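Question (not urgent): is this output format expected?
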Amino acid sequence: MLAYPSSGIDLSGAATGNVHGVAEVLFQGGAGHGEWGGVKRSTLRDHNGVMDPTRQIIVALDCDNRPAAQAVVDQLGDECRFYKVGLELLTAVGPQFVEHLVAQGNEVFLDLKLFEIPTSVAGAVRAAGALGVSMVTVHSMGGTGIMAAAVDAARDYPDLRVLALTVVTSMTDADLVDIGVAGPTEGQVLRLASLAQRAGCHGVIASPREVSALRRALGSAALIVTPGVALAGESAAEHARPGTPLAAVADGASHVVVGRTVTRAPHPLSAFHRVCANLSARS
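Got this back:
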């Protein structure tokens, strides 16, 4: 019997491709219809019960120094409470800035894209949990072994969600062929998402182009976090499979990651408000 670690939940259907039935209980360990990956959907709504777009937006602090990152945080103030810290900023300034963000009451998505032997991945996830972050990424191309190790290591940190990166948003079908993967990008994303499901991950990272197919495959309980979003008319930069925040959320994304649209705008807070307005347009 395949089982979610420590849960005893029967996941035999995952081995035979029965993704729909399994997903409802897998992300995370029996999460109910009121949750995404163990995150209560009520925490994403305002006091009137309406989905609050500010709680679905993660601002990527893709900076190479602490003053620049702190300036963005200061300008956004209380409007944004969720930030992504990636390898560039973490390497440049160290984990103390992550602790600082958490101490200020922010949630942090630590985008490590872990791809190592299981023991090393588990150690890194425990270190992330000790920092107080809310999300950490592991590379699904590493297989079920490292993803399961990450999930197991996160068990001691109830607020930590392990997300599996599927195919980075800069990659195209031709890039996959270069590394020996045949077939379209969406097919590879879905295959890797299935592996992540079997390993017990709380959700996946994918481009806006795959969200609809992922939501159908994984059911209502999975976290689907989408980088590579930009407002209409803006440059997609290096993202090969972009989309708007509105399109991503309408297709079923639980969160969108916004970078340059906000952080490189002349007035980051105004830009953040434009993203919020774009998400609000769906209602």
